[in-house]
Amino acid sequence: MKTIAEINEKIKKGKAVVVTAEEVISIVKEKGLKKASEEIDVVTTGTFGPMCSSGAFINTGHSNPPIKMQNVTLNDVPAYAGLAAVDIFIGAAELSSSEGMKYGGGHVIEDFIAGKDIKLYAKSHGTDCYPRKEILTTINKFNVNQAYMYNPRNAYQNYPAATNSTDKTIYTYMGTLLPKYGNITYATAGELSPLLNDPYYRTIGVGTKIFLGGAVGYVSWQGTQHNPSQKRGENGVPTSLAGTIAVTGDLKDMSTRYVKGASYHNYGVSLFVGIGIPIPIIDEEMLKYTTISNKDIYTTLVDKSGNETYDVSYNYEQLRSGSVEFKGKQVLTAPLSSLPRAREIANTLKDWIQHSNFTLSEAVTPLPREDKVHKLEIREIK
User: Fold this and answer.
1) Is the pLDDT reported for residue 235 higher than 90?
2) Spatial CA neighbour of 303 closest among 182, 144, 193
3) Quick one: which of 303, 316, 234, 261 has its CA closest to 106?
4) Do 361 and 270 reside in the same domain of the chain?
5) Residue 268 has pLDDT above 90, yes or no
6) Burial of 188 by CB count in 10 Å (0-12 exposed, 13-18 middle, 19+ buried)?
7) H helices within the chain, ranges in order?
């Protein structure tokens, strides 16, 4: 057994042994679980993909005379202002009123991180203490008080692959899906994916320190739709959805290399977010979880048209090969998430730890291991 405090002491002295979730697989095969668990202190993970349930809080500071902001837009993208006078929230998936699906909240967040000026427009009904009724100006990351990313649902544990059974092309958050099972898309980093390397959330919890968008961030709560009671396969790995995390970090410190606005043809906008989580190797069991490989991680297939239901699953080695067999034919597969960028994140986090620039944190409370996700029913209103 090792404690996180003991691992942190080794990190501070520059003596911690850190490997990525890809590297650890061959190391354990060579040295065995027991010896490798004694030597390895941290396994780093990474993922970079579309995470629609993301956004940012910004406090602009007060104008003179002051305004209680209502009906706010940032670069013509509606933002939420039902908070204090100059606190606003911009959601990643909100669309521009002038450019529609070509530009949205995710692009505003990327432009803000890049240091660009963002056009701010707000109206107000006016009050005695906030008499201004309208404001038009620009803001950027250098002239606002606070700006922090807060994402209610990121890093799904294992997202289903998608296809389309209909005779027409459909446009979805899983990309463009061609008619009659013309393609299959998927959106998970496989063996590098953070929550797949800690399937029962033994070390990842509220307060866990992470790599977020190129900066230091934290797990702030269980993510929305967190549902760990999903069916699990080998080594505790769920075959669909399961856990999610809510995360937060300083937007001003982030990099546009790891936070990217995205437009989906005929669907809308999203935000690609880079997340890396260090897994402390506190015992042999924890190391064993991190040795899961793409050929052992299966995900289910869903019909995004909603017309059909399948009892079919593929592992990530198959999906990453470029094609799989389905309905008696070879179907092309394509990722929405970036494996090269996920590797880069895992290696960057590894470098931070090896150079004593990043220590680990104890979770202040664990993520739930059991939960139930409710569906929204149409209920009669009396």
Assistant:
1) no
2) 182
3) 261
4) yes
5) yes
6) buried
7) 4-12, 23-31, 33-39, 105-113, 284-290, 316-320, 339-354
Whether pLDDT at 372 is above 80: no
Q: Report pLDDT for 230.
A: 86
How many domains, in total, are found in the chain?
A: 2
> Going by C-beta distance under 8 Å and a sequence separation of 6 or more, which residues neighbour residue 296?
233, 234, 235, 237, 315
- Whether 59 and 146 have beta carbons less than 8 Å apart is answered as yes
328 and 261 fall within a common domain: yes
Domain shared by 299 and 164, yes or no: yes
Q: Which structure tokens are listed for 19?
A: 């490997």
CA distance 53 to 269: 11
- Within a domain: 380: no
Catalytic machinery residues = 129
Please report whether residue 376 resides in a domain: no
Per DSSP, the three-state class of 335 is strand
Give the sign of the dihedral formed by CA 277, CA 283, CA 289, CA 291: positive
d(CA 133, CA 304): 45
User: How would you class 101 by CB atoms within 10 Å of its CB: exposed for 0-12, middle for 13-18, buried for 19 or more?
Assistant: middle
Structure tokens at 305: 């048209």
